[in-house]
Design brief:
By secondary structure, this protein is mostly helical. The chain contains 19 helices and 2 strands.
């Protein structure tokens, strides 16, 4: 009986039902088949027109447009499981606008930004594919870390320099330790050992080492000047160094994009060549189709970006009350909590592709995103602070700089051989937990 029900649910035929009286069995079977066909036809008529076409492909404009909108909306909303948290978006905005309890406002908007980050990533991918490789790479570079950028711009506007610096550093640590660690661990459980393009990984890790130096030099310079100069004089010199360094880092990132997309694109496309030889994927299935048109993806990007900006505004405004009531340092909020929100969609994507043994893509998501933060977003925020009169610099605390250096050092060691396993993933996750615990007890 259960097998028959499963066949009914899947749209298959059921075996004829036999009884002690053959005619009675045939009558029951015919009745069941008629009942199933009637309901199946009713379901098809609900979503199809009289010609059997889906309503979103109907020739009548007044039918096609609403149906197409409903279809694309449903496909977009079901693109990621975390989108169920979208119910917190109106709640977070409503509580923030009504000046509700700061703790509740923080939690609701914290949860609201997670699905918004997922939708932002989905719309960016939909748009970038249709723009071609070069423009698509630029789109991913621009919107890949849009949530962290929006939150940081709001915090920078409000003068929360420590939140901005901690958020940038936390995003890098989250990607190279937490995300990469989860990829190595999840992939290593399903595959004994995984391989990836060591040349690409080495290039990315070298650029991460350069970005590490850009943070170590201002911190050590500030310490070297000691008490021989007034604090304002030291701050001015650090700002000059930070502005110049930021411009250099932006130039390096632009050169890296040209290197990746133009002159040495073959290095980054090597891993996709085997899949490009055939039209089907590794499992014989066709590649997934894209849902949004360029215009729809662009409109979705604008709407989601505005929603993220509104939720980020209320989130940042409630941080002071959270620090006072929950006795959590600003550094911990910016370095641990906010990056988890901004990178939620990337976390899921990277782990899923790692379990499918696509480690080059996982490495690109984890380390590539960290590199964007270090070479693009952070220097941009320093330049933006310079423009709006906020003293945003690359001078981090000595403890934070040392932690960053150690994290990059360990990551470079683990990816240098082009192989990964679950033990290496456990190492990265363990180090991230130690750092999170250290910053939990680290005072502002």
């Amino acid at each position: 009986m259960r097998s028959n029900l499963r066949r009914i649910a899947s749209g298959g035929k059921i075996p004829q039902i036999r009884s002690s009286t053959e005619n009675g069995g045939e009558t029951v079977a015919a009745s069941l088949h008629h009942h199933i066909d009637e309901h199946t036809a009713l379901l098809h008529r609900t979503f199809q027109n009289s010609d059997g076409q889906p309503l979103y492909k109907d020739e009548r404009t007044w039918v096609r447009w609403p149906a197409s909108f409903a279809y694309t909306s449903w496909q977009t909303l079901t693109s990621n499981p975390v989108n169920v948290l979208l119910v917190f978006v109106p709640l977070g905005i409503a509580f923030g606008a009504s000046h509700g309890n700061p703790t509740v406002v923080f939690i609701l908007n914290f949860l609201a930004i997670i699905p918004l980050a997922s939708l932002l990533s989905f719309a960016t991918e939909e748009l970038s594919v249709k723009l071609g490789q070069t423009l698509g790479g630029l789109m991913n570079a621009t919107f890949g870390n849009a949530v962290e950028l929006i939150v940081s711009i709001v915090a920078l506007k409000n003068g929360e320099i420590r939140i901005v610096q901690a958020s940038m550093l936390g995003s890098i640590l989250s990607n190279i330790l937490l995300v990469l660690g989860c990829c190595f661990l999840a992939g290593g459980i399903t595959h004994k050992e995984q391989k990836f393009n060591s040349t690409v990984a080495s290039t990315m890790s070298s650029l991460m080492a350069v970005s590490t130096a850009s943070l170590i030099i201002p911190a050590t310079l500030y310490a070297a000047m000691g008490s021989s100069k007034p604090t304002d004089a030291k701050t001015d010199k650090i700002l000059i160094l930070s502005h110049g360094t930021s411009i250099i880092l932006l130039v390096l990132y632009a050169m890296y994009l040209f290197f990746q997309l133009k002159t040495h694109a073959h290095l980054f496309d090597e891993e996709s060549e085997p899949e490009a030889d055939g039209n089907d994927g590794a499992d014989g299935q066709k590649p997934e189709g894209h849902v949004l048109s360029p215009w729809a993806a662009g409109i979705a990007l604008v709407i989601v970006t505005i929603a993220v900006a509104v939720c980020a505004e209320y989130l940042v405004d409630s941080i002071d009350s959270i620090v006072e009531r929950a006795h959590i340092s600003r550094t911990f909020i910016g370095l641990i909590l906010l990056p988890i929100v901004g990178n939620a969609a990337e976390h899921v994507t990277a782990v899923v592709v790692a379990t499918k043994n696509k480690m080059d893509l996982a490495i690109g998501v984890a380390i590539g995103s960290s590199m964007q933060i270090a070479l693009l977003v952070t220097p941009f925020l320093v330049i933006l602070g310079w423009a709006i009169g906020q003293p945003m610099s690359l001078q981090f605390e000595i403890f934070e700089t040392v932690v960053f250096f150690l994290a990059v050092l360990v990551t470079n060691y683990l990816i240098s051989d082009g192989r990964s396993n679950y033990l290496e993933g456990a190492m990265l996750l363990g180090m991230y937990m130690i750092i999170a615990l250290a910053f939990y007890v680290y005072p502002d």
